[in-house]
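Handoff note, outgoing to incoming analyst
You'll be picking up this chain. Sequence as last confirmed:
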Amino acid sequence: MENIKMNQAAVHLLEEWDPFHLGPDHYDTETADVVAALQGIDDPSTLAKVIQETYEHSFEEWIPFEDCVAISYKLIAIKFEAKCII
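Most recent structure output, in case you need it:
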């Protein structure tokens, strides 16, 4: 059950992030890829690189690495918060 809540929170956060200002409904594939990667990544820099590559590959636009690091810290916080809930 904790994974489902974590995934929902991560999806919601990524939809709100909207790095290219296209609206939350334009990132379904990227959101799914990042949430899947989050399952096995605990390092913010590693996750940030995945985020950057995923979104840049799809949209052929550059996202500053610092922006990706900022969102990766929030995603990892969601992950660890979900693990701590009993």
